[in-house]
Amino acid sequence: MSFSRLVSRWQGLALSLVGVVATVWLGFAGQLGLYIHPRYSVFTLIMAGIAVVLIVGAFAVVPSADDEHEHEHGHDHGPEHDGHGHGPEAHGDQHGHPVAHDALVNRNAPGPGRPRRSRRFWMLAGTAASLAVVAAAVATLLVVPPSTLTSSTVEQRSINSSSATLGSTSAQAASTTDDTSAYTVKNWSLLMRQGVGLDYFAGRAASVTGFVTPDADDPDNVFFIARFVVTCCAVDAQPVGVAVYQPGWQSSYPVDSWVSVDGTFGADPSVLSTASIVLQPDRISAIDQPSDPYVY
Fold first, then answer.
1. pTM
2. List of residues 6+ apart from 35 with CB closer than 8 A
3. 244 with 215: CB under 8 angstroms?
4. Do the Cβ atoms of 245 and 268 come closer than 8 Å?
5. Spatial distance between the Cα atoms of 31 and 25, rounded to a whole number of angstroms
6. Alpha-carbon gap, residue 188 to 209, rounded angstroms
7. What is the pLDDT along the chain (296 residues), one digit of tens a residue?
8. Strands, E, within 231-292: which ranges?
9. CA 267 – CA 15 distance, rounded (Å)
10. Under 8 Å between Cβ of 219 and 245
11. Quick one: how far is CA 159 from the chain centroid?
12. How far apart are CA 49 and CA 55, in angstroms?
């Protein structure tokens, strides 16, 4: 078996093995939650264990290079397998007339060297591409450190744009109680999303934690303290946030840094921002990214 065929045969299993190893490693490192909802962690690890069994079985079942070579050799050259010999008497033309062996060989030959070189080139190119895919998977899943979603994802998924994934239970509860001490960014943003007005928010104190992402309409004066709401995995994560009015915030709080903000809600002084209600901070503290950066 050629090296190209060997790579083509094992590429799928190699990619599967890399994916399983990465999943198990993230699970035992406590970082699987960066990619999926915690309620799916045990299920994911069980499926990874099953995948390991299947991959090991595939390695045992798939014939080795020597097995295939022996099979090909016997099929191509063993007259006992196909009933065709290689002597001149074994060949004839379509009218039953014997054809010289050398002429038959020349007729079946690949011709000038260019087609053979072309096939060899594309075979080598395919092999290189397969190896590159496996190397990229190893680098992406096993070498690059796992990371949470950031402001670049917020730009792709407009902040506070989806209420379908947030549910309505917490918002209904918030509108009927004055105890907001346990409210997160998700609770406050959902209230705003559902149209609760300034008459409820004005003067109400809040303490929220999240990462810094700029307000696209007034990035000089307003930023959002944001979190991602995850219902299944990072693919469906939706950004939610509370607008914070703090002119010149960029000099103290880099984008994507994590902060804790204490303040009170009020009308947005910005004439550019589309946020009508903002958190006017009394204190902003830089913090480390929490072990669980998402809300659910």
1. 0.70
2. 26, 146, 233, 234
3. no
4. yes
5. 9
6. 12
7. 566 777 777 778 888 888 899 999 999 888 888 999 999 999 999 999 999 888 888 877 766 555 555 555 554 444 444 444 444 444 444 454 554 555 555 555 555 566 777 878 888 888 888 888 888 888 888 888 888 899 999 988 888 876 555 554 454 445 556 778 889 999 999 888 888 889 999 999 999 999 999 999 999 999 999 999 998 988 889 999 999 999 999 999 999 999 999 999 999 999 999 999 999 999 999 999 998 899 88
8. 238-245, 258-267, 277-287
9. 53
10. no
11. 20
12. 10
DSSP 8-state symbol, 33: G
CA distances from 204 to 149, 201, 265 (A): 30, 5, 6
Question: Residue ranges per domain, the chain?
Answer: 3-61+122-143, 153-171+179-286
- 277 within 8 A of 266, measured Cβ to Cβ: yes
| Site of tokens 């399983």 | 20
State the architecture of 153-171+179-286 in CATH terms.
Beta Barrel (2.40)
Go through the chain and tell me how many residues it has: 296
Phi and psi angles of residue 212, each rounded to the nearest 5 degrees, phi first: -90, 125
The Cα–Cα gap between 143 and 132 comes to 15
Rounded Cα distance, 162 and 160, in Å:
6
144: Cα separation from own chain's centroid? 13
Distance CA 221, CA 269 (A): 9
The H-or-E segment that residue 186 falls in is helix 185-193
